[in-house]
Amino acid sequence: MARCFNGTILHVNLTSGELSIEHPPEEFYRFYGGGGGMGVYYILRDIPVGCDPLGAENILTFFTGLPTGLPISGQSRLTINAKSPISGAIGDSQSGGFFPAALKWSGFDGVVVRGKSSHPVYLYLHEGKAELRPADHLWGKFTAEVDEILKKEIGDEKVEVLQVGPAGEKLARLAAVLNMHTRANGRTGMGAVMGSKLLKAIVVQGKGTIGAADPKALARLNREGSRSLPDITDVYGLSKNGTADVIPFQNALGTLPAYNYNEGTFEPWEQISGETMTSTILKERDTCYACVVRCKRVVETEYQGRKVLPTYGGPEYETIATFGSYCGIAELPAIALANQICNMYGLDTIGTGATIAFAMECFENGVITTEDTGGIELRFGNVQAMLEIVEKIARREGFGDVLADGSAAAAKKIGGRASDFLITVKNCESPAHMPQAKKSLGLHYAVNPFGADHQSAEHDPMYEEGGSDLYYNRLERLGLDKVQPSYSMNEEKVRFCYLTELFYHALDSYNLCQFVWGPAWTLYGPDEMAEMLRAATGWEITVEEIMRVGERRLNMMRAFNAREGFDRKDDKLPRKFSLPLQGSGPSAGAFWDEKDLEHFKDVYYALAGWDIQSGNPTPQKLAALGLDWIRR
Ligand code: SF4
Predict the structure, then answer these.
(1) In a domain, 352, yes or no
(2) Residue 630 domain-assigned?
(3) In this structure, are 141 and 195 located in the same domain?
């Protein structure tokens, strides 16, 4: 029977240059699922407590999932983990593209990187072999240039390149890791960790093959997915207009953050919508390996004489919101240019756009002036200022150097009232989904081990009245059968937060795209996901097993954080979220009450089986999940 994974994990010690290969047993793959499940396993097992995230002791892991590389939509995903230099807690981020599938086809399921090189290097993987090569000639170059040089150097246009850009080299905590110079593992500072190790890139030549245990069942599921795509409105919208298709919905709901999260609607939203992008600057749609959704955008335009090239893809919803509505900016070509600058230098667009919006609010309130910014009038709506400061962050120049480690670090340096304007949880900037109105998502932002994140639990509207029967039926499969009123928060919403969170943790273990496989609005639901995993592996995987894999990952992350001194006190929302939202939209006046949050945390910790006082997993809980090896 064909096998969908290689059974091969590469260990790289950059200090000694030693490369070694591990062949874990099949049970290891089934127990952790791959992706973040496996990555966090090595981090938790091997790094010393309290290590410097940018020091040699931190471990950086790159993992595919069990189905990665098989011919079905939404499987080509890569998870990167390390101790985060932004939060000091566990770091976690995902990307798509072709790199993840090609990594699997190169003969490896994952790579665990330790130590720190004495000079820039890149790792080249091909046909089950690995070698470290010098990368001094790549240092300081833009991501597309590096991609081109490496393809020529290896003599194969089809190799896939994962890399840090100049921002990661300069250890900007906002740095991302990019593949195809358009797909970012953006959040939690993984680019800075890779840069700190002087690991410039990983290049994979994917000539090998892997196979599904039941290729016919996989092909049938694939055909069914293609057929149902036009009928699932949300997925069809993604396909047609990209992730920015959600802008009208977000604005109507009052959850499109504007002016650094002061308002939940943005009056000129139409100018930055996915539909506007499609009808103005879109050049083509792009995809990840084998995905029929094709939600990725490639744009071509110019802004005041500066070209925006198709080479650097196009902006996602989060990018459009952070550089757009967060900053009070409605010029799509300028936002596309900001996206290009981030991709050239390797910056996380969410963190960077949100940090600029934070700085704009500081400026508007006189906390910083042109003396601090080097003459830049950093006001909401000032497009030139936004573009100027993005480049300065990328190069760590002038005031950009103050912002390059993110808004929480900048607030400390600026002092005064700056921290009043933060929208961070565990130092990570909140993405473009407002927890003041999506209440259970607010609880999730607070308790999530790696800070505010929009892709690790389902969003409230899926479990609120006026929704879709298909989505409700899928949620019922997870035990969620009591649809709730709009904008509500209660104990049932805590269950919704927790149970969908477990499902999302499983998605990030198996490494599945959350637009294709999910608990509600996606191309396939939980039962089809179990069916696909059975077809891929030949194992009798059930929805219950999927939830268990997710629970394991969540508990490992919390156990890691506990070791690093995190507990209940760190599960909090920024002060700003406790103030009523301004503006006139449907969410105006909404806020998160701090006492309510403490109450819902009690309910959440009890559901998770954790200690209520500390919010950390108990030894009994870890043992029940087969994780009693975890050091306390
Ligand atoms: S839905 Fe979009 S992000 Fe997800 S796999 Fe398909 S093309 Fe990639």
Answers:
(1) yes
(2) no
(3) yes
Q: What is the pLDDT of residues 373-417, one digit of tens each?
A: 999 999 999 999 999 999 999 999 999 999 999 999 999 999 999
In this prediction, residues 600-627 reach a mean pLDDT of 98
Q: Is residue 287 part of a domain?
A: yes
Q: Ligand 1 mean position to 388 CA, how many Å? A: 31
Q: Where are the beta strands (DSSP E) in 164-310?
A: 177-179, 183-185, 199-205, 282-286, 296-299, 301-303, 306-308
- Residue 405 included in any domain: yes
The DSSP bridge partners found for residue 424 are 429
Which tens digits make up the pLDDT trace of 524-553? 999 999 999 999 999 999 999 999 999 999
Residue 102 shares a structural domain with residue 156:
yes
Question: What spacing in Å lies between the alpha carbon of 627 and ligand 1's midpoint?
Answer: 32
Compute, in angstroms, the gap from residue 291 CA to the centroid of ligand 1. 6
Distance from the CA of 512 to the center of ligand 1, in angstroms? 9
CA nearest ligand 1 atom 5, residue:
74
* Residues having CB within 6 Å of any atom of ligand 1: 73-74, 96, 287-288, 291, 293-296, 513, 515-516
**CB atoms near residue 491 (< 10 Å):** 12
The total of structural domains in the chain comes to 3
Which residue range(s) make up the domain with 296? 247-429
92 Cβ neighbours under 8 A, 6+ residues apart: 36, 40, 79, 80, 81, 84, 187, 188, 449, 450, 508, 557
Q: Whose CA is nearest to atom 8 of ligand 1?
A: 288
Q: Looking at residue 2, what is its pLDDT?
A: 84
Question: Which atom of ligand 1 lies closest to the CA of 516?
Answer: 1
pLDDT tens digits, 203-244: 999 998 899 999 999 999 999 999 999 999 999 999 999 999
State residue 632's pLDDT score: 59
> What's the mean pLDDT when you consider all of the chain?
97
Measured CA distances, 578 to 262, 420, 421, 457, 597 (Å):
11, 11, 12, 21, 10
Same domain, 320 and 462: no
